[in-house]
Structures are given as C-alpha cells and as structure tokens.
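RNA-binding S4 domain-containing protein
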Amino acid sequence: MNHWIDRNVLGFWQEKEMRLEAAHLLDLADEAIDNSLSVRTPFLGLSLAQWFEGVIQKESLSYKAQGGFSDSERVCYFLGQNGQDLDQVQNGITLLEVLSTDPHVALEHRQILGSLMGLGLKRELIGDIHSGIRGMIVAVVDEIADYLLQEWRMAGRANIRVERVQGELNLREDPGEERRITVASSRIDAIVASGFNVARGVVQEWIRQGKIKRNDLMISKPDLEVKSGDVISCRGYGRLRLRDASETRKGRIGWSIIVFQTQKH
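Predicted structure tokens:
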C-alpha cells in the first residue's frame, strides 16, 4: 500500500501506544485514497479525533464523523476518495439499550463500560454511553452488536437485558451545571480542584492514581495547561467542559465551565 500521507505527522504523539494508534489511522486514510471503497475508523476519543481531522483536512479525501448521537464525543470517521458521497454509506454504528431486570436497580456509566471491558472488548469498539429514559444507551460498532445482544447479561452485579434501539432515541437530558470559577493559572489541577470543590492536593493525588483524563487521554502532569473546548473527566466524580476564559481585574483567570457530576462517588 502506498503511503500518501507524510508519516512525520506522527511526531505529534510522544507515547508509543498513541503513535501506533495514529499510524493505524494513517494506514486507513491511505487505503481510502488508494481504493474506491469507503473506510471506517474505530471510535476515537477527543484528542485523537481532533488530531486526525486536522491531518485528513489537508488530504485528497472525503470524510465525515459520526458517533450515533447528535453530540457524540467519541466518533468514527468514514473516509472515501475525494468527491465520494459518504451520505449514502451506512454508518456502521449500532445503538443498544441496556435495561436492568430489577426496576429498583439503576445502572451507571461505569457499570456499563466496566462490564463491556470485562467481556474482553477493546475501547475502540465502544462509543459514548448515555442515560436513557428507561436505561443506558451505548454506541458500538456493528460487528459486536449481535454478540452483545446474545451474550451480555451482567453489568457489575446487576442482571440486564439488551435491546437494539429502534425508532426515536429517548435520552435523559443532562445539561450540566454552568459555573464561573476563578483561578490563578489554567493548570489542570487548579481547574479540577475549583470545578469539583476539592483541595488541589487531592486532585494531584487523583492524577498520580490515573483517575483524570483530558479529551479522553490520561494525564500525568498536574501543571498541564488547559484550553477552551477541553473536556476533563475524573473517574468517580464526573466531567468538566471548559467553555471560555478571560482575565479578571485582579489578574486572575476566570473560566466559564459546565460541570457534569456523577450521582455517586
């Protein structure tokens, strides 16, 4: 296969695992350029998706991103030769509704993801997970949908049944809580501490424990600078979506954020 895309763009990624994932995406893009058939990537987190779209925008490709929901954070890219109409291509994504067999037991995001990973599935096969009116809704690639419909029966300690979503998608609205916070700097530990109302030292310990991600990538440095549009997740607490920042009259930084907190810590 020809390498149409310059592999020097892989230098953006310092971690070996991320470079390997990114290299696979470039191989898929080269395949789309070479052939008349459309190509679909795995589900990508925010950081990898932003990088990949920045790369393919400069190439002779048609592309679209879909994740199964109108506001998907994790998306698959569909690639085709320049000028190819991808609207006629099936999206290759199935939405599954996961219901507890006990009406008194509510399912949570971490139960759903944990049980899927426990089945030996890779994260790249799984998209966003949302709360529905009746249960949880999860996006998966078509290739594993039938397997899950037949074999997935437990999420944590809860017995479940799984159905294919048909017709209108009924999601539970979670607009989050808009807040204005003021910090001395835009370090991630300062933002998370203020957003979740915890001590900065606690956040630094979370980072050491691998509990915090920015744009779906685990971080290891508390002094990492954040920017508008970033999504920061903390396992067991929730997510922060950063909107915009401005300097206050006292020289501090005011951030507009949206906080999505889990119901249980």
